[in-house]
Design a protein that fits this description.
The complex is a heterodimer of chains A (about 260) and B (about 70). By secondary structure, chain A is α/β, with parallel strands linked by helices. Chain A contains 8 helices and 10 strands. Chain B has a 5-stranded mixed β-sheet, with no helix packed on it. In chain B, a hairpin with a 2-residue loop joins strand 3 and strand 4. Chain B contains 1 helix and 5 strands. Classes of the chains: A alpha/beta (about 260), B mainly beta (about 70).
């Protein structure tokens, strides 16, 4: 069944987006990106160390994968807009994963600054994918501003704690007008499946793959989990029940 | 001609362009990003953007990140 993830009019066969950070090597990263079947990968933007230029990550990414530059490290709207403008001017796509994070301990995004930056970037023609706390009210403001997705965190970045903020994300999914991509905090494929079963349009995973014992194998596992969760969402989950509901006939017992 | 690039003083020939700067740094690849005196430089302008004495430059590129 063709069931693409559509962001800003572009279709992606995979509903898994991966980050490129935290891999032991570029080779591990490339193998994992291939194994994940993802078509959109995030990259950060940093100053080049002139004393040690090193290899370019872009030389290691599979062909056909779209880069999604992020604004990680930016603490204000102005900083994020500056990074986005630099990335686009230099030839990166005009898609931007907007992150404005003033808090180094929990890496929680600043919704007010994110919205301010989103308004400016959309106005300048960027396709904006904002990273947010699961806030259904902020979601509506970002949608109204013209964002292409809204990307709520499941738990703090890199924490691997899973879908801790499930209830708020559930509301966001229910009232979404643009795709909801659950971003950050997932530690296991089962947690990605849970997001997809809930009706999330996609998930973004980095640490759980990059720091796994075998990143490529874990990437493949996440890909399968995302597919399974999406299929289950379409199939229709049963309602929960407090009491048991027998699966076998309760009449005609041999022993009656 | 001296310019400041990523906080480091570099000596370039007079009227060197952004393209020349990137060549000198070994960054001729497709995704070298350049900000000159606080303004991003469009990639298609790299060959004809002449630098000036005292310019402050940021040269960046995509790196691993989530």
């Amino acid at each position: 069944m063709k069931d693409p993830l559509t962001i800003a009019g572009r279709e992606f066969a995979s509903r898994l987006i991966t980050g490129t950070g935290k891999y032991p090597s570029f080779e591990n990263m490339r193998d994992a990106v291939v194994a994940s079947r993802c078509e959109l990968v995030t990259v950060a933007v940093r100053r080049v160390d002139l004393d040690e230029v090193g290899e370019a990550i872009t030389d290691w990414l599979p062909e056909g994968v779209q880069l999604l530059p992020n604004t990680a490290g930016c603490r204000t709207a102005e900083e994020a807009v500056r990074v986005a403008r630099l990335a686009r001017a230099g030839g990166l796509p005009d898609w931007i994963k907007l992150e404005v994070i003033p808090d180094a301990r929990y890496l929680l995004p600043d919704g007010e600054e994110t919205l301010r930056a989103a308004v400016d970037l959309v106005d300048e023609g960027f396709t904006v994918l904002p990273y947010v706390q699961p806030d259904p009210v902020l979601q509506k403001k970002l949608e109204a501003a013209g964002c292409a997705t809204v990307m709520p965190l499941a738990a703090p970045i890199g924490s691997g704690r899973g879908l801790k903020l499930r209830n708020a994300i559930e509301i966001m999914i229910e009232q979404a007008e643009v795709p909801v991509i659950v971003d950050a905090g997932l530690g296991a494929p089962s947690q990605a499946a849970e997001c997809m079963e809930l009706g999330a349009d996609g998930v973004l995973v980095n640490t759980a793959i990059g720091m796994a014992g075998d990143p490529a194998a874990m990437a493949a596992a996440f890909a399968q989990a995302v597919d399974a969760g999406r299929a289950a969402y379409h199939a229709g989950l049963i309602d929960e029940s407090q009491e048991a509901r027998p699966s076998s006939p309760i009449t005609g017992l041999v022993t009656s | 001609m001296k310019v400041l690039c990523n906080g480091k003083e570099l000596e370039l020939e007079p009227s060197a362009t952004v393209t020349r700067l990137l060549d000198a740094l070994g960054l001729e690849g497709p995704y070298a990003l350049v900000e000159r005196n606080g303004e991003p430089v469009e990639r298609e302008r790299y060959p004809d953007t002449a630098l000036a004495e005292g310019d402050s430059l940021v040269v960046a590129r995509p790196v691993a990140g989530g």
